[in-house]
Amino acid sequence: VNQLKTELYAMKNYVDQKLQEYLAIDEPLLKGLGDSINYSLFSGGKRIRPIFCLVVGDIFGVPKERLMSVACALEMIHTASLIMDDLPHMDNERMRRGKPANHLVYGQDVASLASVGLLTRAYEVVLNDPGLPDAVKTKVTSKLAEVVGIEGMVGGQYADLKYLNSSIEYPTLEYIHIHKTASLFVASGETAAIVGGSSDSEIDAIRLFARNLGFAFQISDDILDATGDEAEMGKPVNSDKANFITLLGVEKSKELVKRYTQDAINAVKLFDGRNEKLLALGQMLVGRRS
Ligand code: GRG
């Protein structure tokens, strides 16, 4: 476990370093925009999606260097979505990772531009990566667009804004979280598999793993929200929004986390012998405390 932690930590550092390179903004007139972007990009994100991408790449023998643009693009999309999600006309959150939300520091105008700017740079870094063949870039960017767009995170967020209230039913809640959260996990695994040139059945297995794990991750996020420690979480706990806990209670939600984690594990049996890191990462994600 310690060796795995060291390895994941090294991946995180590598991602941080590359993100800095990809987001170096030299134009003096854009200093405020750059500051806003960097504020959210380097404020303690766990880098789960890029790390997951690199770990899946490992299964297919893809060297980390080759996946860097894709891994960083995933984190840029994630950060863009957090900035937007926190805005007053969306989730109206004041705190993120123990610090004031981006718009409270830089203003809603700048925060919105930071979000769209990051989202755009995500596609840019993949498309400009000299290490990836054009056919791979097309598949990767098309996958990213699919999971971010109308039938992905945008749709999930829409359903969240419009239907996440106390009379929500389980299938709607499931739709929201599959699209808002699990879809970027799916993209993180699938893009790595695409770069690794894997077969359709291998991609299907990774998709199933990521979807189930992403879903379990969201439920455990809700459990932490309801029961977690405010200092560890970096935001107030016990929000009054409907979620898995308000709908099913803590015990049933915990059971669901177990069930979806098990489904995730079962999905990647075909990689037996080279999936240890993937399984360990999965356990870490659903067992986390912040
Ligand atoms: C892509 C710009 C853009 C918009 C899409 C706003 C929006 C539409 C979607 C919101 C999606 C969202 C905020 C999902 C929540 C996902 C989630 C569980 C976040 C917490 O993830 P962690 O724990 O966060 O990985 P850290 O802080 O570690 O980065």
Task: Tell me about this structure.
By secondary structure, this protein is an all-alpha fold. It has helices spanning 2-22, 31-41, 48-59, 64-86, 102-106, 108-127, 134-148, 153-163, 170-195, 200-227, 230-233, 244-248, 250-267, 276-286; strands at residues 95-96, 99-100. A hairpin with a 2-residue loop joins β1 (95-96) and β2. The protein starts with a helix and ends with a helix. The model has no long low-confidence stretch (mean pLDDT 93). The structure holds geranylgeranyl diphosphate. Residues 45-46, 48, 77, 80-82, 84-85, 97, 115, 119, 148, 153-154, 157, 180-181, 218, 221 line the site of geranylgeranyl diphosphate.
What is the fold's blueprint, element by element?
Elements: H1 2-22, H2 31-41, H3 48-59, H4 64-86, E1 95-96, E2 99-100, H5 102-106, H6 108-127, H7 134-148, H8 153-163, H9 170-195, H10 200-227, H11 230-233, H12 244-248, H13 250-267, H14 276-286
Antiparallel strand pairs: 1-2
Bound molecules: geranylgeranyl diphosphate.
Tell me what portion of residues adopts beta-strand conformation: under 5%
Q: What is the helical fraction, as a range of percent?
A: over 70%
Distance, first to last CA: 19 Å
Structural class: mainly alpha
Which small-molecule species are bound to the chains here? geranylgeranyl diphosphate
Strand order of the largest sheet: 1-2
The whole-angstrom Rg is 18 Å
Mean pLDDT: 93
Q: H/E element string? A: HHHHEEHHHHHHHHHH
Which regions contain 5 or more consecutive residues with pLDDT less than 50?
Answer: none
Number of E strands: 2
Shape, per Cα inertia axes: globular
How is the biggest beta sheet arranged?
Answer: 2 strands, antiparallel
Enumerate how many helices there are, as a single number.
14
